[in-house]
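Here is one chain, start to finish.
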Amino acid sequence: FGNLLDADALIREAHGLGLRVIVDLVPNHSSDQHEWFKRALAEGPGSALRERYHFRPGKGANGELPPNDWE
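Its structure:
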């Protein structure tokens, strides 16, 4: 954890030791409160942002049960 300056320092130190740093991002674990998800909802079906997520019709008589389409 930390900020970008901390990350820069870590990378410099690692490089000084002959190590390489790999940053791994797993975007399929973002929260429904994350800005990416909120923007995907705002863009709507068919948008490039929306394709980052899997939206499904909800279960139940009116689609009210998970998994749902988040709308």
